Amino acid sequence: MSIKEIYIFGNKLVIYELDDVCDSVSGRALTGSWIWDSALLLSNWIATHRQTFEFAGKTVLELGAGTGLPGMTAARLGAKRVILTDIEPLVPGLRKSVEANGLGERVWVSRLVWGCDELPSRLVESGEVDAVLMSDVLFDAEEMAGLAKTLKEVCGEGTKVWAATEVRESTSDCLAELEEEGFGIVELPSQLGGESLDCFDNFAVFQLIPPKQTQFEDHSAQMEE
Fold first, then answer.
1. Rounded Cα–Cα distance for residues 164 and 138 (Å)
2. pTM, rounded to two decimals
3. How far, in Å, CA of 45 to CA of 193, rounded?
4. Could you report the per-residue pLDDT of 191-217, keeping only the tens digit for each?
5. How many domains does the chain have?
6. What is the dihedral of CA 27, 147, 91, 205, to 10 degrees?
7. Where residue 170 sits, what CATH number does that domain have?
């Protein structure tokens, strides 16, 4: 296990990276065990686009949290409740990071497998969330049906969903699968503080618009006609 100190526009966060967690089937190290650049991008993006969304007093869910950097950044930005979720082997590392940053009163950690019928009890207690954060989850098109099901269950009519990702060959396939599930996809400017950083040239930030929101917009447009 290693410990990293990350600074997101003046906010220091301590992150525990696990080096001894492997997939029980393949034996490979779980990729969510360490910080990926897309998590750094999303964390910096939400910190520099607060005119787009004010986190103070909001409830935030991070799916596929890995090390939980974006979710804990949201907590530092004033979110009243943050729920970090991932598969069971990554939960201990998330809890260590939450504890190290003194965020235990506002940040919960729960196991969540996309597509499962049963949501974590604390997520159910929180009701509809105000924002969903995801980083580097758009890599396997076969996982998108499960992700879409979970998003549909947790998103309300006002929920904002943002996903940061390294752009790979599989990214367009993942987005196409989500569109098939009824989601609107909008690529957002990924500049940070008015600057475009070279290290994020091959990365993108997307807003996912849940089906219930796109249906509401279509209905409103028909009413106006």
1. 9
2. 0.89
3. 8
4. 665 444 556 778 999 999 999 887 645
5. 1
6. 100
7. 3.40.50.150
